[in-house]
Amino acid sequence: MSSSIEYINEGVKTTAKKMVKEGEIFASCTFASLGLDPTLCDQLRDKMGFEVPTLVQAQAIPAILSRRHVLVNAATGTGKTVAYLVPIIHHLQKSTRRTQRADGTFGISILVATPGRLLDHLKNTSSFLYSNLHWIVFDEADRIFELGCGKEVEEILDHLGSRRNIHVKKDNAISSFGFPQQNLLFSATLNEKVIHFAKISLENPIMIGLDAGDSALEFQPSERGRFLGQDINDEVQPIRKEKSFSIADYKIPTQLVQSYVQAPCGSRLTVLFSVLKYLFERESFEKILVLFSTCDAVDFHYSLFGEFKFSSSESESRPEHLFLKCKIFRLHGSMKPEDRRTTFQAFKTEKLALLLSTDIAARGLDFPKVRCIIQYDPPGEAIEYVHRVGRTARLGERGDSLLFLQPTETDYLQDLQNHGVSLTEYPLVKVLDSFPARGRKQFVEKLVSLESHSWIMFLQRAVESFVAAEPGMMKLAQKAFCSWVRAYTAHRGELKRIFVVKKLHLGHVAKSFALKQQPSVVGKSFKKQVKKRKRDSRQDVSSSKKRTL
Ligand SMILES: Nc1ncnc2c1ncn2[C@@H]1O[C@H](COP(=O)(O)OP(=O)(O)OP(=O)(O)O)[C@@H](O)[C@H]1O
């Protein structure tokens, strides 16, 4: 598939047409040809090692230099940050105006903020002056809405006089650069909220990464087909309610290989352990990121994977060695900021490493050369899935993703499919068969269940004994078990139908934390939670009945 891109370059007043093949990452032009200052191009090459722009940069940079509002929808890891930062720096460098204290934020050229904090300052900090604000960049727009910050960003627009459908005195929007304020919106996924926001925040924008076939935007018939590098209709068009967002709304790197592994609850841990060993040792993967639902789960697996020793032979006399031989790191929100920074840097530079993390690493973070993302605990919304897998296959590199699902959770695949995301089943039995047979014949005629695979049984026993012998580890396992169950009950909306708490077998969940027995205290609190949920849902039903009567 190919599509035509129109390059708009105010500086050199040229319009070039280029054919883009699906899956290509880099453009066949130079940064200089996009109208950027030569010194900036030199810095990009010498300091950053960026020889040529990525496709999204080749489209966005001239568009932003042209001073128009811009909407970019591009896959994770395609270089969106540089796409908006470089043209802004280009303008800032060109400015010859001496800045004064009274110029406000113009004293700090670039302000990076979360919506809530920014709104707080806009409302309450009298010394926060922003009359010279020239660019507003909404990066990770989908994330902003997913976090429920939609109201805040709309209020921010109002404060900055930037909402499209309210009357704004023209002078307010003219910055000291002598041209109107420019709004830029970047998102890896599109949904109704992002589209609505685009319509109220962007004036006559250039659209990048949307084409007529896959656009989620609805326009008048005359507007159809005018997407890449072309104008959006001036009038705000209502979004049709029945439009379902699918396929191209979720941009996934085309070279990413996406699989799922079906692991029964009680064997999840040993399957993860085995797959990791296989990927590092047999497939020579260098860096892997595993995502967990809770900080406690990260802590437990970090300690276990870092300490679990294993003998490669049945013989007692053979020395034990670490089961996983790579460097292991962990990252989660309960760690001190400096520890997080150190981990981030260390994992970035390490050649052979495993990072265990919560969703803190699922978005925006850029670790080079991560070959595989394992979602050990499934994500919530499909959008989260897209961002999690986006930590690999960045900038055209190879990448694999593996989603763990219990047999009762496989409806989640349909949910992903509804968004145009298809996964193939991972050849797990082949991986397990590659490990030495233990105790009994490995090649049984038919494997009745994964739990009865000789390697899985052997490894499960070994890990359980290891944890039982280490009181510290046991505590971590119990804590992780409790948090995991709580996190499982927190699935919202439609997902509650797929991740059904009542279907959990707590004894099996305990096994997945290498516990021989389910911690009793957890049983009580969990049962209480289930009872409460039942009571709440009964109340919901009866109050909705009352409303309809
Ligand atoms: N022109 C370029 N040449 C080489 N590397 C580049 C270029 N532009 C960006 N990169 C590198 O590509 C990586 C991905 O870039 P970036 O994080 O901006 O992507 P993104 O599209 O914002 O991803 P996400 O949506 O996941 O945040 C970074 O390591 C960045 O330094």
Briefly summarize what is shown.
The chain is α/β, with parallel strands linked by helices.
Secondary structure topology:
Layout: E1 2-6, E2 17-21, H1 38-46, H2 55-65, E3 70-73, H3 80-94, H4 115-124, E4 135-138, H5 141-146, H6 150-159, E5 182-187, H7 192-201, E6 206-208, E7 256-262, H8 268-281, E8 287-291, H9 295-307, E9 309-311, E10 320-322, E11 327-331, H10 337-349, E12 353-357, E13 372-375, H11 382-389, E14 399-405, H12 411-417, E15 424-425, H13 428-433, H14 454-468, H15 471-489, H16 495-498, H17 506-511, H18 520-548
Parallel strand pairs: 3-5, 3-6, 4-5, 7-14, 7-15, 8-12, 8-13, 11-12, 13-14
Antiparallel strand pairs: 1-2, 9-10
Helix pairs in contact: 2-3, 4-6, 8-14, 9-15, 15-18
The chain binds adenosine-5'-triphosphate (ATP).
Enzyme class: hydrolase
GO molecular function, one term: ATP binding
Keywords: ATP-binding, Helicase, Hydrolase, Nucleotide-binding, RNA-binding
Q: How large is the count of helical segments?
A: 18
Shape call: elongated
Biggest sheet layout: 7 strands, parallel
Cα Rg: 26 Å
Strand order of the largest sheet: 11-12-8-13-14-7-15
| Bound molecule types | adenosine-5'-triphosphate
Q: What's the CATH class of the largest domain, please?
A: Alpha Beta
Q: What is the architecture of the largest domain at the second tier of CATH?
A: 3-Layer(aba) Sandwich
Mean pLDDT: 80
> Termini, distance in Å?
54 Å
Assign the CATH superfamily of the largest domain. P-loop containing nucleotide triphosphate hydrolases
Proportion of β residues? 5-15%
